[in-house]
Amino acid sequence: MTGRRAVLGGTALAVLVEILPGPPTALLTLAGLWLLLGAPTVLWYGIASRVVSTRDGRVLLAVGLSVITDIVVALVVNTALPPLGIGQPLARTPLAVASALAVVVIALATDPPSERLADGIARWRERHPHQLPPGLVAVSALGTVTLALSVAGPIRLNNQSGSAVSVAAMVSVAVLLALLMWRRRQYAAPIVVLGLFFAAAGLLLLTSLRGWYITGHDIQHEYEIFQLTATGNHWNISSYRDTYNACMSITLLPTSLVRLTGISGVYVFKVVLPLLFALTPALVYRSVRNVAPNLVALLSAVFLMMFPTFFTDMVFMARQEVAFLLLGCAMVVLTETSRPVGSRRVAFTVLALGIVLSHYSTTYIIVVTLALAFVIDLVWRLCSRLRRRPSPETVQRSFITWWILVATAVAAVVWTGPVSHTGGQLQTSVTTTVRDLRSGQAWNRSSDVSYSLIGGAQVSPAERLREYRADAVRMREDAGAGADYLPLSVVDAYPVRPEPEQVQPLTPLGRSLQDGGVDVVAANSGFRAITAMLLQLLLFVGVVTTLWGRRKAFRPTRDQVTLTVGAGAVIGMLTLLPQASIDYGVLRSFQQGLFIFAPFIAAGLVWICRWAGRRRAAALACALSLVLFLDLVGALPKLFGGYPPVLNLDNAGEYYDNYYIHPEERSAFSWLLVRAPGQQVNIQPQDQTDRVAFRRLQTQQGTHVSNGIHPLLIKKDSYVFLGSTAVREGEAAVYYRGDGVPYRYPAAFLDATKNKIYSSDGAEIFR
User: Which of 360, 459, 670, 687 is deepest in the core (most CB within 10 A)?
Assistant: First the structure.
């Protein structure tokens, strides 16, 4: 039986399982995963071989193409079936049949991929008849232990136990990375890719599995949008015209996964999508390995993983997880040098269009970066001609061409314009930025810019609260007397003051250092700030030494250089422009930039370590990167204490207080839902409560939900819902200009102006 027949036979069996009533859950999961990921990946492997020369690169690219296939199939079904009288096009049977048809179409258009894989395996077995690939057993065993610890650690924390297992998981990730670094010359690239996947998956699951419900910032709104599509088995942008609802990565893709695999939506968002995102370090490794030594490629992947946004925020932004997966695939195609440039450009454009369907802000940044890279390339060529002595780099053919840029930009405009009509956020950001610049408010940026070398000083919490109050007062005045806010004179009687940042108590080791004259708290915060500056300096050093140094760590392609300059310029603009730093996030933009310029950071580190000698420089660079990794992920600070608690290691801290959903809060919500069904009421929940449920109440019951419980926002006739942090700790938080500011909540204010109608250990409701 040929490979194509085997794939089609498995697909036929999977469809049969999907359409039969009441299949076993395990069988349904296997069938759905085969239809959505297994069969398309095996088939796309054949197409990927035309644009990527390495086996591991083909597999990774095939996964990305499979994700795009799933989105496109669901979009076609969602569009074509309703006019034919099928009101629920995203039900299991239509999706299963459409996915199977897509597999058939791909199979007819591709070479038999299974024979390619089988031939490669057979050739290796002929050369090594009684031997497994070096490192396969060690990496698989250590990776399995890492995943087990990364699942057990969050479960223990969710049960209010200690963080020892989570710390052990982080150490296990570091040991796995150290093994890959130590044996990088003996391990084949697929083994390194496997190890990087295990390491990234373990790191991400430590955060994504926190909480028994949907936990995090953006992901709560994403999950609400997903439910609008999944509940009706139909995506309709006009039902809720929101930028999130235009992201197929959190509407059509998870709906297909839920319908065909039987996995609950909660675990699609908390497990399946993070595991797909865990492929990104492997993609960075492969894209860099195409043009650089193993050491630079491996360090590039580690730098992507160690950046705090990777493991603290990305699992709470599923739409960007999918977009970054496709971006990593695009970089693999861009740095490939052994395949025809025409076919690679087509593949790159397809991946860029997939990003357009997945996430708007990632698309905007890519379009601007591509435009800047294209202009830089033109200037580079012009200067080369004026010198009349072009270097080999300047005569090198550029990959980025005008039609790639135009196709991506036009697709973004069409999707956010005529198709979804969700381009308002971009217009608002531009308008607000221009207004701030004209009014002299350019300094009023997100505090994240303080990590940049050109960002300036961080705004203090007290200053942020004053700015927030001024805006809230203006909003009340604009709303007029009919807004029914509590009188300003009453609010001013209960002033709001910022709370100091939470800091973990010192451990015995930390106290010993403190007694020895070391300020542990200052050392922790100072090391983080220095690390942020160090990454930027390494980037600068890497670019300079790679382009003009005598001893080059690697020789980048022309497009890597122009894209790096373009990405750096975009990050600089986001840092300097006030509203842009808030709407698009400097840290997230740097995380996106690492897909492009991580090898230059790695090259900078290798160059700095050269003083140790040729033999020791690599070992020193690896050791320093592992120390940075252990510190940034929180394992080293956990040994000493005196650092702000983080969600993946503590039941405390900003993210825990503001986004962790407690059972007491859900019970209180259920009580309120029963008390006021169908009433026209106003509910003001604290930020960390289950806002998804409250918004669902808004759409189903006709209620109005106002986010925030700051005294300036309280209305006379509203329900005020206090969550666990306010009840147990007496704290709340406001989110303004991209910053979260905790403050001491004036409990006496609600006692004086409202009646308490519900109270438990973790929630209170006032009316």
Answer: 360
Neighbours of 393 (CB within 10 A): 14
How high is the pLDDT of residue 580? 64
On the CB side of 74, CA atoms within 13 Å amount to: 32
List the structure tokens of 369.
Answer: 């970066």
d(CA 655, CA 360): 25
- What is the enclosing helix (H) or strand (E) of 685? strand 682-685
φ, ψ (nearest 5 deg) of residue 536? -70, -40
Q: Is the pTM of this model over 0.85?
A: yes
CA–CA distances in Å: residue 59 to residues 65, 113, 345, 447: 10, 11, 19, 40
Alpha-helical (H) ranges within 293-359 are 294-306, 308-312, 318-335, 341-358
Mode of pairing for the β-strands spanning 704-705 and 682-685: parallel
The CA distance from 763 to 478, in Å, is 32
CA dihedral 328, 334, 339, 345 (to 10 degrees): 100
Question: What are the residues whose beta carbons fall under 8 Å from the beta carbon of 142, sequence distance 6 or more?
Answer: 172, 175, 176, 179, 195, 198
Instruction: Specify the pLDDT at position 56.
Output: 94
- Residue 86 CB neighbours (<10 A): 16
Report, as ranges of residue numbers, the positions in the chain whose pLDDT lies below 50.
Answer: 1, 113-115, 393-395, 443, 454-455, 679-680, 687-706
Contacts of 505 (CB under 8 A, 6+ apart): 641, 642
Compute CA 135 distance to the chain's CA centroid, rounded to the nearest angstrom.
30
pLDDT at 114: 46
Residue 35 · residue 99 · CB < 8 Å: yes
pLDDT on residue 452: 54
Asked whether 279 and 325 are in contact (CB, 8 A), the reply is yes
Sheet holding 704-705, edge to edge: 704-705, 682-685, 719-722, 764-766, 756-759
- Among the residues of 81-133, which ranges form H helices? 92-109, 113-127
Beta-bridge partner residues of 722: 764
Secondary structure (3-state) at 497:
strand
| Gap between the terminal Cα atoms of the chain | 70
Residue reference for tokens 């994240």 = 448
pLDDT digits (tens, 9 = 90+) for 457-508: 567 788 888 888 888 888 888 777 767 888 888 888 988 888 888 888 999 9
Tokens (6 digits) for 402? 């005008």
Residue 733, SS3 per DSSP: strand
- Spatial strand order of the sheet with 739-744 comes to 497-498, 739-744, 731-736
